[in-house]
Specification:
It contains one helix and eight strands. It is of the alpha+beta class. A hairpin with a 4-residue loop joins strand 7 (about 135-140) and strand 8 (about 145).
């Protein structure tokens, strides 16, 4: 029994010694860092870059009735909805649209391009502004013009 008591005593002394060594190591790490003088400001965190500018709206107000014409003479009318300065809005095709443009439901203006999207959000066409109308192509390659 005496051996067990001696072992416990040594174990407690070992734990105290380990704790003391840990405390000394932490104090040494603190002393190694450069102290800040009383008149010196603490280091500032790295500057955060400013957020990117907001996307620019289309060059014309898209609200209203537009004619979508495909190469080959097919065309239909679409009603574009939005609020002034918007970068996205709704589309209501009137019917008889070429290809699958009868599924047009939304437009977005991104990176200087008008993108017509279907009811699933999939891109149907990319058009660029050309004076008083938009020119571009459908995702299947058909040339398109969107005009008033």
């Amino acid at each position: 029994m005496r051996d067990v008591t001696a072992l416990r005593s040594r174990g407690a002394r070992g734990a105290k010694a380990a704790a003391a060594l840990l405390a000394l190591a932490l104090l040494a790490a603190c002393a190694a860092s450069e102290p800040i003088a009383a008149n010196q400001a603490p280091p500032q965190p790295a500057a955060v870059p400013p957020p990117p500018p907001p996307p620019s709206p289309p060059p014309v107000d898209l609200a209203g009735r537009w004619k979508l014409s495909a190469a080959g003479g097919e065309h239909c009318f679409m009603n574009f909805g939005n609020s002034p300065g918007a970068i996205q809005g709704t589309i209501a095709p009137e019917g008889g649209c070429p290809d699958n443009f009868f599924t047009s439901r939304k437009w977005t203006f991104e990176h200087a391009a008008l993108i017509i999207r279907n009811h699933k959000g999939e891109s149907l066409a990319h058009l660029s502004f050309a004076g008083d109308h938009f020119d571009g192509q459908a995702t299947n390659g058909t040339q398109l013009t969107l005009s008033r």
